[in-house]
Amino acid sequence: MTHPAPVRGEHLAAALSLATSGVPVLPLRAGKVPFGNCLACEKNACGGRPNMKTPGPCLCPRPCHGWAAATTDRHVINSPEWGYEWRLAAAVAYHPGGAGLTVVDLDNADAIAWAEANLPATRTVRTTRGEHWLYRGVMPSANAVRPGVDVKSRMSYARWLGPGTGTLAALPDSVRDLVVREPAPVRPVRVSVPVPAGGGRCPHRSPVFLERGIAMAEQTITAASSAVHATVYGVFLAVLSTHGRCGCLTEAHTQRLFAAAGAKGETARHCEDAWANALTTLGL
Predict the structure, then answer these.
(1) Three-state DSSP class for 175?
(2) I need a surface site. Which of 42, 79, 155, 198 has the fewest CB within 10 A?
(3) How far apart are CA 4 and CA 161, in angstroms?
């Protein structure tokens, strides 16, 4: 990443340059807050929740909020929906995990002193109050892992403040150890769909067809480098549209799909919501 930090009026050009380098980007409005990614959610009008009343993700056809909106797709970045937002943008943000990076966000002088004493040297970027230390590698994100220290990688975004200085180092265990979590169990949704006459056997050629479809679905999710929410939902929709009425999908199949999504940073709750939304869309 060798791009200069943008100033107002240059955000779109900087975003396109970053996207060309494989860095997923999104616009930020004043206060470091993301815009919505569609006109229906302009200024986060839906609050990220259906009807502003129930918990869960926005029900728009595309991911609208935060890190999930980050993309390297120049057509999306140049789209009319984002054109208005880039004109009002106060900053460019990027999804570190989607770029294969982890950012250790050091918010003050004490945090920087701690990092200098405990973390390996790497590329650093000056921020308003401290520094970003960038490492090559991806891990879960977490806030307040130490006083004045956040970790931003998967399912997070960071402001683009320039390329920084120094050589990019590999993500060390000393940073991974800052985020100690038990792995979230994969909790597949039990599929309840009508079973057609014929004992529920899949009418599509042979069981190999189903196995191949599940394997391709896993590969599609694994290969996603941006818009992970949309990819997972699209895969679930495709699988259910083909096999949702056959009665051939089992809990083992859904567990495989959920596990692939979990490896990309999706939570069990996100998977369950996407699966339920796909069922609803297909009338299952």
Answers:
(1) helix
(2) 198
(3) 8
Give the SS3 label for residue 1: coil
Beta bridge partners of 106: 131, 149
Q: Give which of 251, 194, 226, 207 is closest to 67, Cα–Cα.
A: 226
Q: Please tell me the distance from the alpha carbon of residue 183 to that of residue 245, in angstroms, as a whole number.
A: 32
Q: Quick one: which of 219, 206, 188, 187 has its CA closest to 248?
A: 206
Q: Checking DSSP bridges between strand 101-106 and strand 123-126, what pairing results, if any?
A: unpaired
pLDDT of 31: 81
The helix or strand, by DSSP H or E, that contains position 269, with its residue range, turns out to be helix 268-281
pTM score of the predicted model: 0.60
* Tokens coding 213: 């479809």
Q: How far is CA 271 from CA 33, 71, 237, in A?
A: 25, 20, 12
Q: Is 83 exposed, middle or buried (0-12, 13-18, 19+ CB in 10 A)?
A: exposed
3-27: string of b/e by CB count within 10 Å (b at 16+)?
A: bebbeeeebbebbbbbbeeebbbbb
Beta strand pairing call for 131-136 and 169-170: parallel
Which residues are registered as beta bridge partners of 136? 101, 170
Q: Whats the size of the chain, residue-wise?
A: 284
DSSP tally for the chain: helices H, then strands E: 9, 10
Question: 271 and 235 in contact (C-beta within 8 Å)?
Answer: no
Q: Is 86 exposed, middle or buried (0-12, 13-18, 19+ CB in 10 A)?
A: buried
pLDDT digits (tens, 9 = 90+) for 253-270: 888 899 888 888 777 777
More confident position, 200 or 255: 255
Residue 21 sits at φ, ψ, to 5 deg, of -85, 5
CB count within 10 Å of CB 74 equals: 12
Contact 132, 161 (CB under 8 A): yes
The rounded distance, in Å, linking the Cα atoms of 117 and 184 is 32
